[in-house]
Amino acid sequence: MSREEISGVLGYRTPEELLGPEGTYSRGMALRGRIERGMVEEISRMKREPDWMLRLRLRALDEFERIPYPRWVTGVDGLNLEEISTYVSPDAQRAGSWNDLPGDIREYYEKLGIPELEARFLSGLTAVFDSETVYSRMKEYLESLGVILLPMEEAVQRYPDLVREHFSRVFPPSDHKFAALHTALWSGGAFVYVPKGVRVPQPIEAYFIIGGSLEGQFEHTLIVADEGSEMSFIEGCSAPMLKKYSFHDGMVEIHALKGSKVKFITVQNWSRNVINFNNKRAIAEEDATVEWVEGSIGSRITYTYPSTILRGRGSRTSNVVVGVANGPYMKDTGSKVVHAAPDTRSSIVSKSISNGGGVNVYRGLVRILKGATNSVSHVECSSLIMDEGSKAHTYPHVQLEEPTASASHEATTSRLTEDQLFYLRSRGLKEGEAKSLIVLGFLQGIMQDLPIEYVSVLTKVIQVEFSEVGGLG
Closest Cα to residue 17, out of 400, 308, 350, 397? Predict the structure, then answer.
């Protein structure tokens, strides 16, 4: 499939779009103002990029100026891109060890429990503060296996041919306005290449943190799993409580080659002032498997739809999406799958929790193209509404173009009752503790797919989110 064909089958710009305390860090250089050619050229110059990357950025800028705001985007009327710092370089050199990190950054990581994870000898860790990678670590066995794990900017310089072959090929900037904006302004992120037949035994970790208000973050993660390889990648996202909003417009591209297996887990815990766009897509070749696990907590509004194009015969994808809208905030999440080859399989499981006037929206697209014979897709949406003022909406969209294929969808909605709360409170639990216990029970079936360290972290986050304090504020 060409990039244009990929855009078309996913339906971003068709009628289906309807589905569709202030940081205290010393700042480095920041770019702010009108998003135009001079700004893009300056970012590319500062990064000493090759000409092909600058040309790609400028083509994306043209797309950004041409494409209207997506019709499936609401609630971002106050977003002023000219007011946001589109590139922020922290006033810190890249660190080679944990103790080399600046104290303020290390304090945020300690709150996330990263030191404990490091103590468990995880396979790799790369952290991005604002727009730049400031701390990276690689185990000796990764190097000995030939696995490439680098900051995205460094990969562009050291492996230009490999990066150019895949960068912006899975998720082209022409898809929608914020995809184009990301490609024009991308900064930071991680590049992973796993050679043929290599199995990475432990997950690779990456953390992205926004350090201050009125800052944009545009990290780009690119994963290439060569034939017969296997790996897991865990992405954590966070931001402190900010006085004004910040904007996150990240992107993940995965290319799973023949017989490979990639699992990508995201745990987001943004503050209430973050507007979050998460552009994620994978291409699965013959007999490849791609698994997405998406956990979205916090933020003022989140848009994320992990997507997979099943391009090769026998390829498979499993997508699990969790959205927690606690307070007058919105989670617009879901998943998209395109079956473009015979004997392909897809499974989508969506779990949403709405509390305190929160709104959850599920937007899903399953398209089984003509010729994708004997393909099967199943979608399951479950919503938990915690009070009278909260809402959950489900907008599934199925395009079945192959008569031998089958697609099914089921949806359930449950509501927390006063009797349930009374029962738990009569056992000595506070209301917040009772709600967190109910939510954790609702999520039990999918938490078994997470590494044990992240089950612990997610459990703590849920407990805080539904405590009497009321979450991140």
Answer: 397
β-partners of residue 385 are 354, 415
Give the number of other CB atoms < 10 A from CB of residue 115.
Answer: 11
Residues in the chain: 473
Nearest to 192, CA basis, from 247, 134, 260, 238: 260
Q: Are 463 and 323 within 8 A, CB to CB? A: no
Identify the CA nearest to 182 among candidates 91, 15, 67.
67
pLDDT recorded at residue 115: 52
Token pair for 123: 């396979």
pLDDT of amino acid 437: 86
Q: What would the mean pLDDT of 355-359 be, rounded to a whole number?
A: 92
Nearest to 127 by CA among 95, 84, 153, 88: 95
Rounded to whole angstroms, what are the CA distances from 38 to 54, 62, 106, 160, 412? Answer: 11, 13, 34, 24, 50
CA angle in degrees (0–180, nearest 5) for 310-335-70:
110
Structure tokens belonging to residue 449: 């797919």
Cα–Cα distance for residue pair 195/307, rounded to 1 Å: 24
Kindly state the percentage of the chain with pLDDT values over 70.
71
Cβ atoms of residues 343 and 375 within 8 Å:
yes
Express each pLDDT in 264-275 by its tens digit: 988 777 777 788
In 3-state terms, what secondary structure has residue 428?
coil
Distance from C-alpha of 473 to C-alpha of 326, rounded to nearest angstrom: 10
- The per-residue DSSP string of 231-243 comes to EEEEEEEE----S
CB 296 within 8 A of CB 361: no
- Beta-bridged to residue 254, according to DSSP, are 223, 282
